[in-house]
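Please describe what follows:
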Amino acid sequence: MSFELHPQLAKDTTVIGHFPLCVALLHKDNAMPWVILVPKRENLKELHHLPMQEQQQFLLESQAVSQALEATFQPDKLNLGALGNMVPQLHIHHIARFKDDVAWPGPVWGNTKSEFRSDEEQQALQTRIGNVLGLSSLFSKA
C-alpha cells in the first residue's frame, strides 16, 4: 500500500518538504504559522501505534519543525496537538502562537477567521520555513 494524504489535509495545506518519516505541510490559514507533520504510513491514527524507533524519529522531526518555527517567528508559545476527530489520519499540528493572535490565549480550533493566505503569500511562507528546515540534514524540499 502506498501513502496517501487525507483529502482534507491536501485541501487545507501545501507541502513544504519531506523528512524520513513525515511529510511537512503548511496550513493555509493566515492566522498564524502552522506546520503539520504527517507520518507517511497507511491507516495510522495514533502516534503510539508506530514502532518505538519511528516514534523516536517523529520526535526528531517534530523538534526540527519546532526549532524552525521558533527561529523564524519568535513566537510567544508553540502549540502542538493531535486531535484527529475530523481527520482520522495521524497528523500533528505545530503552531506558532502570539499574544496578539486572533485566538490567544484559547485554542486555534474554531477561533480563527478560517481565511486562507493567497497563493503568493502561501508560497513565500512555505519557502521561508522550508529554507530553515533545509538546514536540518533530515529534511528534503518537495
The helical segments are 7-12, 52-73, 119-133. Residues 99 and 105 are 7 Å apart (CA to CA).
